[in-house]
Design goal:
Layout: H1 19-23, H2 28-33, E1 43-44, H3 56-67, H4 80-94, E2 104-108, H5 109-121, E3 127-132, H6 138-144, E4 148-153, H7 164-170, E5 175-181, H8 193-205, E6 209-213, E7 238-243, E8 255-259, H9 262-275, H10 281-293, H11 295-318, E9 331-332, H12 343-354, E10 356-357, E11 359-360, E12 372-375, H13 380-396
Parallel strand pairs: 1-10, 3-4, 3-5, 5-6, 6-7
Antiparallel strand pairs: 2-8, 7-8, 9-12, 11-12
Helix pairs in contact: 3-10, 4-10, 5-9, 11-13
Length: 397
């Protein structure tokens, strides 16, 4: 046995930490869901993760690759076969044309792609424009990159679309990057071709670069997704970010990608080379299998989400919570203003009193207060029970 030694502990290490990092709060989602850990009988509508397992043939391709000993590094940008498959998929699905050799790179999830894009673009003091409510990571990563995040509030009355007048109102000489997340996490809002046209004009007039997070592109329900990169003149101004987590039920595989002008991708690749080298080789094999033979399963999952979407929206409206109809992703964003509670108080009381976990809307930025985010990527039985519990909880308020 190793003898235990008394170690003199430093009371606090905060003095060694970078001030910028100390200022950034922990994830509002993760902080809240630490309360859920270990609790029994909780129905979770919180974490944005498909309830489906990765299809068996995708998992099997990874196992077979491991059995053959394919465990070495891949090229920094990812397996060429995978990049070719990504380029072909984007062309067939969204009419986007990218050269696999130097305009496509594979990343460790879409999150790494966003981080790489911001670090490659931002100089200290540059402003990053972010329509909100939105995915919680953009603003902290922008700050870590030395940038200044600037929120642009969107509203339920507009289906949480980015309005051109709102974008114009925040632009200054320091504005450099516009981050887009459509279909939207957390609202489920989408943008159409007509919605994008005036936004594209403003982007060009103000010489902005766009990071378009389209991780939910496949999850649209009443009309097909329109990529911002497909708008006239926007391809070379846009870094398209996407991945396999949501549509292909591959969250834990950490498979993402970025596409764009070769100069932008080359800059991102430099950082990628020095930080993670390459995405995991066996996960890349699985991603290739998903793109090659996984479309039928993807479509079935999307149809299932669509059925649950209708159930959840109708359910919220019936219990007295106004809820705009999400056209994409797998989230509902009902208003809880009528209860008189803040989103934080509502979510905490809902958890402890009704045993339903949802995310308070304020963590998603401007316009999020007065709402909760509820993922419908869970079973119909769980969703039905959750709606009943929320309805009973509201009656008791």
């Amino acid at each position: 046995m190793i003898e235990s030694k008394q170690v003199q502990q430093v009371k606090s290490m905060h003095g060694y930490l970078a001030p910028l990092v100390q200022e950034i709060p922990p994830s509002g989602i993760r902080k809240f869901f630490d309360l859920v850990s270990g609790s029994k009988d909780i129905i979770s509508l919180g974490v944005g993760e498909p309830d489906f397992r990765t299809p068996w043939h995708v998992r099997e391709s990874c196992v077979y690759s491991l059995e053959r000993g394919n465990t070495k590094y891949t090229p920094n940008a990812g397996l060429l076969e995978l990049r070719e498959a990504i380029a072909e998929y984007l062309y067939e699905s969204f009419q986007l044309l990218y050269e696999p050799s130097d305009e496509v790179m594979v990343t460790v999830g879409g999150s790494e792609a966003i981080d790489l894009a911001l670090r490659a673009l931002i100089a200290p003091g540059d402003e990053i424009l972010i329509p909100e409510p939105t995915y919680i990571s953009y603003s902290p990563i922008a700050r870590i990159s030395g940038g200044v995040p600037v929120g642009i509030e969107t509203f339920a009355k507009d289906q949480f679309k980015l309005k051109p007048e709102a974008l114009k109102a925040v632009i200054t000489p320091r504005s450099k990057v516009l981050i887009l997340c459509y279909p939207s996490n957390p609202t489920g809002g989408i943008m159409t071709y007509e919605d994008w046209l005036p936004i594209a004009k403003i982007v060009e007039e103000n010489d902005l670069i766009v990071i378009s997070d389209e991780i939910y592109a496949e999850l649209t329900y009443e009309q097909k997704h329109v990529s911002f990169a497909s708008m006239p003149g926007m391809r070379d101004r846009t870094i398209l970010v996407s991945g396999f987590s949501k549509a292909f039920a591959m969250t834990g595989w950490r498979m993402g990608y970025a596409c764009g002008h070769q100069d932008l991708i080359s800059a991102m690749l430099k950082i990628h080379q020095y930080t993670v080298m390459c995405a995991p080789s066996m996960a890349q094999v699985a991603a290739l299998e998903a793109l090659t033979n996984g479309m039928e399963e993807k479509d079935k999952m999307v149809e299932s989400y669509n059925q649950r979407r209708r159930l959840v929206v109708q359910g919220f409206r019936e219990i007295g919570l106004p809820c705009h109809e999400p056209q994409g992703a797998f989230y509902a964003f009902p208003s809880i203003e009528s209860t008189g509670l803040s989103s934080e108080e509502f979510a905490q009381r809902l958890l402890f009193e009704a045993k339903v976990a949802a995310v308070p809307g304020h963590v998603f930025g401007l316009g999020g207060e007065g709402f909760i985010r509820c993922s419908y990527a869970t079973s119909v039985n769980q969703l039905t029970e959750a709606i009943d519990r929320i309805g009973n909880f509201i009656k008791k308020l």
